[in-house]
Amino acid sequence: MKRTLAAAALAFTVAAAPAAPFRTEAPEEAQVREIGAKLRCPVCQSENILDSQSGTAREMIAVLREQLALGRSEAEILGYFRSRYGDYVLLSPPASGFGGVIWLVPPLLLAAAGAVYILLVRRNAEAARRAGQASQPRAPLDEQSLRRLEL
User: Fold this and answer.
1) 89, 82 in Cβ contact below 8 A?
2) pLDDT over 90 for what percent of the chain?
């Protein structure tokens, strides 16, 4: 009896559970998401076009879909938007021209800071070494000096 009730409860639970919708996504939508995540919204300036709610971003997504429908590659599409909005539309600046400078400056500053740190540590160690050599051990105080200190 208990087994029958348990089996019935299990069957009822499985039958009553809503079926999860089987969601398939068109390959074009995956490309829209992939390329759209690389494009900055010219209005919001801190969001990609997929996250932006501006009309300009919506128009850019529509153009992106049109470009994909025409069979354009990712590089061609990014080049299209770059020609219309400049390098700023790309969330990752290109590694050539001024964009190359943007990529090179942080590591160069980090290397310069490390060199300054090493230079200061060595200078401080050298000063401490010289100070240690300059200080000679003092002779013990004689009786007369000890009496003066006690007063």
Assistant:
1) yes
2) 37
The helix/strand/coil state of 48 is strand
> Which CATH number applies to 24-89: 1.10.3660.10, 1.10.8.640, 3.40.640.10, 3.30.1330.30?
1.10.8.640
Question: What is the rounded CA–CA span in Å between residue 42 and residue 58?
Answer: 11
- Closest by Cα among 69, 81, 72, 71 to 37: 81
Rounded CA-CA distance 52/57 in Å is: 6
Domain ranges of the chain: 24-89, 94-133
Q: Cβ(46)–Cβ(86) under 8 Å?
A: no
Reported as a single tens digit per residue, the pLDDT across 105-123 is: 888 899 999 999 999 999 9
Is this structure's pTM higher than 0.85? no
Under-70 pLDDT residues of the chain: 5-12, 14-25, 27, 94-100, 133-138, 151
